[in-house]
Specification:
The protein has about 150 residues and is an alpha/beta fold. Helices cover about 50% and strands about 15% of the residues. Strands 2-1-3-4-5 form a five-stranded parallel beta sheet, sandwiched between helices. Helix 4 links the parallel strand 3 and strand 4. The two termini are about 25 Å apart.
Length: about 150
Amino acid sequence: MKLTVYLSGEIHTDWRDEVAAACAKQNLDIMFLGPVTDHAASDDCGVEIIGAEPDKFWHDHKGAKLNAIRTRTAIGRADIVVVRFGEKYKQWNAAFDAGYAAALGKALIIMHGSDHQHALKEVDGAALATVETADQVAAILDYVITGKLPAAS
């Protein structure tokens, strides 16, 4: 079984690479999709493509709309959506992606540290799994694909 997995959430660490590497180590047949992780490109795509805006609100509005085209398309294509909430910033966009995926009935895996348990209790409640590490994500995806438990360590 080949899966398409959308990796949503914070863009300030290499967690996406960690998930992909953990899955590659297990030879899992997965196509990964994700948002634009170049912060400047994501922020400025609207004005670069459609045209300049003197008002920061409209600058951000244009960028958000173009990014939403990418995000909605990719989440729609995904079999599973993994949403990572990082330590440093509040990721409102990640919470929105989780809600959007849940509304579409997508299988949802939420990833965050224990310090976010209370703040994300509703998001975690919508998830089919809540984890802390890339290896846990890979183990879940392995189980989904193969139906087998990981070999005992």
